[in-house]
Q: What sequence folds into this?
């Protein structure tokens, strides 16, 4: 059997849908390198793919040292104009 191919669509300005899934969140089972994940998430955000909104409340697990670096970065980075 051939695997299903995921289709993604950009959000329209008049699209008022905010949630496609009403079920309980799934437990994480797949490990992904941050270097593989970030470019995809950045592209989806830049191109305004609506599916990304479905995952904004999901939590990710990071190492303690990355968490410390991110906290430091958050407190010292310049604000965007």
A:
């Amino acid at each position: 059997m051939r695997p299903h191919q995921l289709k993604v669509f950009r959000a329209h300005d008049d699209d008022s849908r905010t949630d496609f899934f009403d079920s309980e969140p799934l437990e994480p089972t797949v490990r992904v390198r941050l270097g593989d994940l970030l470019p995809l998430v950045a592209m989806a955000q830049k191109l305004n793919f609506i599916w990304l909104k479905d995952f904004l409340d999901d939590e990710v697990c990071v190492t303690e040292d990355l968490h410390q670096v991110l906290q430091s970065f958050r407190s010292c980075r310049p604000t965007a104009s």
